[in-house]
UniProtKB/TrEMBL annotation:
Originating organism: Salinimicrobium tongyeongense
Protein name: FAD-containing oxidoreductase
Domain (Pyridine nucleotide-disulphide oxidoreductase dimerisation): residue spans on this chain: 343-448
Entry keyword annotation includes Ubl conjugation: no
SUPFAM superfamilies given in the database record: FAD/NAD(P)-binding domain, FAD/NAD-linked reductases, dimerisation (C-terminal) domain
Length: 455
């Protein structure tokens, strides 16, 4: 049995910074990884997809700038092999940097293999037993594959990023983050894309007006969007995939060479031997944690997507910050300190913080709202990018900002002016009375706040 002060399972967005901090604080630390270093974000998530999104935007601009007085003759050519090689280089750089972090630190031992719990204190990896007083689980998740698709040659976010040629046809099942980001980028690369979503709008968790605006943006970009498409099934036929949908009210079919499944993710907690421990899971397989991210076993913590408290890189990294502060810092951070925030990297992007209209109404909070269509924003007009709108919500009793939803050019950046005010606990008047730079989209946030109305 090898003894450590701490064991971390998984090198996602929380594991590596935690390993570095534990080591800095003198703890002999083992970190175990069964796949590529860096986990989802680095290898098959944020980094590669945002690199592809960037190439797709260049392609779109090159081919669609005639009304801006810029005309490129001929067809824009997409070289997916070069796009992929650029992404592989970004990933390789991250691998190198992580390897260096682990190699240069004498307090860190990296184990390449699959970790399994034998009991609350013992972990098996590559036939070796390890034990430690503190254990941290950062095992992330993987794409959900419904039974109806198991028999066909489907793609996921992982295999999409291995393609060398742009598919002629692409059917995407699911109109959430993964579905929309891939649908728009591959449409811009030249694929004929169809999205099948069982809900009544794309990004249906958002407020109805935002979900509808997103659906319109995606449709206008030439993607075929089939909503309320329930009961979707797929079978191999004549060397292609035949997708059947709306099975009850007379089924419809589509033939496609490529099918992407983007119907959510499941946590990697089912192959971890947790049944041999006292760590409790919820009914969807997420590890239950308290406000300090401890599991039902106090010396075992769960961080990142596997605890079901966030599903983003920044939430996983914040989980590291919470645990790290609980262990080593004077200022103790907690899960309940966090305002939910995220962006979907469609073009234009959607960015969110805090509560939206649906959530405010569901919680019965007395609130005010201000809205601004991007068509009224000078900078958006100058850029020729006027799709979308901004919404901001204020607590009618405290004047504090409850949340904001920005759908528009550059929204993933200027949402941070609201995020920062929320963390500062400022009233909305602070933002309303601030002088912002002209011409920016941000300058319309104070203007918008002049016109609050009851929600
Ligand atoms: C296509 C896509 C795009 C995304 N884009 C964004 C984005 O733009 N912005 C954003 O904030 N988020 C994005 N995300 C989400 C983001 O990638 C995750 O939230 C983030 O990676 C956090 O993951 P994590 O730290 O929980 O673990 P992960 O990054 O999933 O890492 C977990 C690691 O644990 C390892 N592991 C699992 N089980 C074991 C075991 N038994 N033994 C040893 N090792 C094990 C895995 O191999 C993996 O390396 C995206 C996700 C996808 C799929
Ligand atoms: N920009 C980002 O931050 C980013 C990007 C990609 C992924 N992610 C993370 O990855 C997670 C997973 O993304 P996702 O898009 O796979 O999931 P999602 O939950 O965002 O969307 C899944 C969609 O698939 C639909 N769906 C589910 N089952 C279906 C079925 N059988 N037939 C038709 N439609 C069906 C759902 O109605 C939903 O709209 C996200 O929650 C997010 O946390 C984040």
């Amino acid at each position: 049995m090898k003894k450590f002060d701490a064991i971390i399972i998984g090198t996602g967005q929380a594991g590596p910074p935690l390993a570095a901090s534990l080591a800095r604080n003198g703890l002999k630390t083992a970190i175990i990884e069964k796949g590529a270093l860096g986990g989802t974000c680095v290898n098959t998530g944020c980094t590669p997809t945002k690199a592809y999104v960037a190439s797709a935007r260049r392609a779109f601009i090159a081919g669609n700038s005639r009304e801006m007085g810029v005309n490129i003759e001929g067809k824009v050519q997409i070289d997916l092999k070069t796009i992929k090689a650029r992404k592989d280089q970004l990933i390789a750089d991250s691998h190198k940097s992580l390897e260096k972090t682990f190699e240069k630190d004498e307090h860190i031992s990296l184990f390449r293999g699959k970790a399994m719990f034998l009991d609350d204190h013992t972990i098996l990896v590559n036939g070796e037993e390890l034990t430690a007083k503190k254990i941290f689980i950062n095992v992330g998740g993987r794409p959900r594959v419904p039974k109806d698709f198991e028999a066909v040659n489907y793609l996921t976010n992982r295999s999409m990023l291995q393609l060398d040629e742009v598919p002629e046809n692409l059917v995407v099942i699911g109109g959430g983050y993964v579905g929309l980001e891939f649908a728009q980028m591959f449409s811009r690369f030249g694929s004929k894309v169809t999205i099948l979503e069982r809900g009544s709008a794309l990004m249906k968790k958002e407020d109805d007006d935002i979900a509808e605006a997103i659906t319109e943006i995606i449709r206008k970009s030439g993607i075929n969007v089939l909503l309320n498409s329930d009961c979707i099934k797929a079978a191999e036929k004549d060397g292609e995939i035949e997708v059947t949908y709306n099975c009850e009210e007379g089924s419809k079919t589509i033939q496609t060479s490529h099918l992407l499944l983007a119907v959510g993710r499941v946590p990697n907690t089912d192959e971890l031997g947790l049944e041999k421990t006292s760590v409790e899971l919820d009914d969807r397989g997420f590890i239950k944690v308290n406000d300090e991210l401890q599991t039902s076993v106090p010396h075992i913590w769960a961080l990142g997507d596997c605890n079901g408290e966030g599903a983003f890189t920044h939430t996983s990294f914040n989980d590291f910050q919470i645990v790290n502060s609980q262990l080593f810092e004077e200022r103790k951070r907690k899960l309940s300190d966090r305002f939910p925030c995220y962006a979907a990297y469609i073009d234009p992007p959607l960015a969110r913080v805090g509560l939206d209209e649906k959530q405010i109404k569901a919680q019965g909070i007395k609130a005010k709202v201000a809205e601004m269509p991007m068509e009224k924003v000078a900078r958006a007009k100058e850029k020729g990018e006027t799709a979308g709108k901004m919404k901001i919500f204020i607590d009618a009793e405290t004047d504090r900002i409850l949340g904001a939803t920005f759908l528009g050019t550059g929204a993933d950046e200027y949402i941070h002016s609201v995020i920062d005010q929320m963390y500062a606990g400022a009233t909305y008047q602070v933002m309303r009375d601030a002088v912002h730079i002209h011409p920016t989209v941000s300058e319309l946030i104070p203007t918008m706040l002049e016109k609050l109305r009851d929600l």
